[in-house]
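Hi V.,

You were right to ask for the full record rather than a summary. Here it is.
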Amino acid sequence: MKASGEGVRDSVVLVDDDELRAGDEWKPLIEAHIRMPVRVSRSQEFQKDVGVLEERRAACREGRDPGLLHGTIFDRAAILVVDYDLFDFSRSLDGDAVAYLARCYSACGLIVGVNQDLTARWYDLTLLDHPLAFTDISIGASQLGSPSLWSRQTEKAAGIEFRPWQWPHLDDAAEDLEKCVDHAAAHHEGDVLSLLGIDETHRGLVTRDVVSVIQRRTGPDDEPAVATPDELVADSTLGRLAAKDRIPDAAVPRVVAARLRKWLDAVVLPRQDILVDAPHLVAQIPGLLRDPDDESQWQATCDLHATHEELPLAENDSLTKSRAAFGDVPWISRPTWWLRDIASSAELDAARDRAGGELGLVFCEDVSAFCARGDARRISTKVGGNRSQRWVRIPRDGDGRPFADYEPAVRLVD
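Predicted structure:
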């Protein structure tokens, strides 16, 4: 696989319903939080460039080389923001179709889906975040101007309470995607678990329902097998939408990188029982903190950008140098570990047995922080595994209104 012929990605591109002119409203909100130029795609430009992607798709279906992936608004987008209501742009295309064309037939960077759900203020209590969609992250339109979505610098200055834990910082996520594309282009031997750096010992920890998403589709007499990078694109649940579609060779590393990052972020990590991130780790094993009675140490584990070494964890040298720490390539937007390795490591016996403190804190998914148990509500998610019960804080604005619509409300347990 070779990612060749790509143009330079140097802008945020907004694709919205031209009749509503939402992009003109969104543009200044985003410009306040990111240094890249922000462009709004107008109807004529959109129709022309979508036509180019559809021509590339048609060429691939006919076995022809579609040529270099450059020249459209999609090829130039480091971050593509797609409004899911495109009725006035196109009666035949919706956000899902645009995201698919952009991912598979352009050199597009990160893809953000806007209003994939029923409200512009959506907070998904299932914590699933459209795991198979070709968008890389889903948000509501009212959240586009959130400082905590775009940049670590603007988030730190704003001190905003509502910040879903599954959000990366989009400027960093766009850079991380490019690193993963380069890695996928350079390492295409073996299957995709090997590409992710998952060895034989750890691949046995990935449960059957989770790994099934990255298996190649097989006939009735074939044994299921983890897909190679080419098979992931052509013959897996994460791959092409139509059987006759073919993905251009130049796009394969980009599709592989984006789809594997989505699998890790939206299928594997939300469970927190295969791979586990820092706040969920100390919530399960409080004795791993150097001082479980110091609330600041609990909150420090919620820093997306702290390295493994920088986190306030006891026996950190053992944790970071052990095989428990996951990955040198930024496939996931935060430090993570193999939970089973930590749970079974003899070097961590003392930390696991240490008293967990008396602060009574729980990690709240909607604010990315630890809160007092009495200020939180338990939710029943759909992430799978044995840790599906989580917590939310439901912060409110000055008028007493929640910052988001928490749906489906039936998942609020108490």
